[in-house]
Every structure is written in C-alpha cells, then in structure tokens.
Amino acid sequence: MLNSHSHHGHSHHGIHGCTCHTLSNYDRKIKLLWTALIAIASFAALEFGVGYWSHSLALQAESGHLLSDSFALALSLLAAWFVQRQAARGENFAHMRIEAIAAVLNGLGLVAIAVWIAIESVSRLQSPPTEILSLPMLVTAGVGLGVNGFNVFLLHDSSHHDLNVRGAFLHILADLISSIGVIVAAIAIWLMHWLWVDGAVGLFVSSLIFVSAIPLIIQSLNSIRNKVSLEQ
C-alpha cells in the first residue's frame, strides 16, 4: 500500500514538472542557436572579403553558404521563440508544425545555395582564374574550420531530437566539410598551382549540400503530414 502511494506521488510530480522541463529545453535551444548565429554571421562577412580579394570561388561559395546559414539560424530562432510561447499555452500540435515548416524552409535554402555554387563552379572549371592567393585562402578556411567545428559541437546533441535544430545543424555540418575542402584546395594551389581545384572543390561542396538537404526536406514534410493527420 505504501509503495502504491509513493508511486502515485512520483507520477503526480512528473505531470507538473513536464511543462517546466519543456520550457527549459526551449530556453537552452534558443541560447545555443543565438551563439551559433553570432559566430557564423561574424565570420561570413570576413570570409567573403578574403575570398573576393584572393580570387577564390571555393572561399566565396563557403561564405555564401555561411550567409544562408545565418538566415537559417535566424529562422530557427524565430520558430523556437514562437514555439516557446505556444508550449507555455499547451498548444503542442501548432508549435510542432511551425518547427517542421521552418525545417523545410531550411532544406529549400540549402538546395538553392547548392545550385548557385554548382553553376559558379562549372563556370570556374571552364575558365579558371589566372591567379588565386592560396595563403589567405588557407588561413581563412582554417579559421572557418574552427568556427564551424565549435558550432557542430554546440548543436550536435539537440539535433538528434529536434527537426528545427537538425536543419541548422546540417547547414553547419556542410560548412565544416566545405572548410576541409577549401583547405585541401588551398594546399593544392599553393604547392602545385592547380587552379582548377578551386572550382572542383566548389562542385564537391554543392553536391554535399544538396545530398544533406533532401532527407531533411522529406523528413520535415512527413512530419507536417503526420501532425495534420493527428489534428483531424
């Protein structure tokens, strides 16, 4: 009898703690997204300037992707803030659908960036530039690797169970891998003067972004469809 009473008391406490726990998770998520947004937006401007100066398409492409990341993170932040308000009122299905829509928009943004980078890369392969400054390209990509690595570490745990954060995480993960590609290209240009590698890395990065975007879009659309079915 005593055990039964104790179990009942524990369950009762869990019910009251649920909303507070959910709101605490959203507070943490908003802080994580803000941190990632500030780091990425600051570096995007620097990377574009260096890419333009050094004539590196790969670096400019990566900065363009970082710019899209900034918009994606801003969108994720807006959705997370709105969700926090809705969750406090207990409107679960509405806020979950908003997050899924934000994730779809993030995926579509990734596709648009991938197409732009692919077009520019093919053009660069057809007519390579006469000079690319490999050392500034290498140093900037190295810093970018550090910035993106920090943000991947920051968002990794939350990305497993949150579609909205997962969209932002995939943006940044693609940036991390593209930073590695730019570093490889810079070294190849520096040591062997292979200017065509700049365009080839850009094409690789665009393919990587596209491949990461499609599953996110499909998963998010399925999530929206399921939530609509549950509401009916």
UniProtKB/TrEMBL annotation:
Superkingdom per UniProt: Bacteria
GO terms under cellular component: plasma membrane
Membrane topology: Multi-pass membrane protein
Name of the protein in its database record: Cation diffusion facilitator family transporter
Primary localization: membrane
Organism from which the protein derives: Chroococcidiopsis thermalis (strain PCC 7203)
InterPro entries: Cation_efflux (IPR002524), Cation_efflux_TM (IPR058533), Cation_efflux_TMD_sf (IPR027469), CDF/SLC30A (IPR050681)
Compartment list: Membrane
GO molecular function, one term: zinc ion transmembrane transporter activity
Keywords assigned: Membrane, Transmembrane, Transmembrane helix
All residue ranges annotated as the Cation efflux protein transmembrane domain in the record: 34-223
Transmembrane regions listed in the UniProt entry: 32-54, 66-84, 96-117, 137-156, 168-193, 199-218
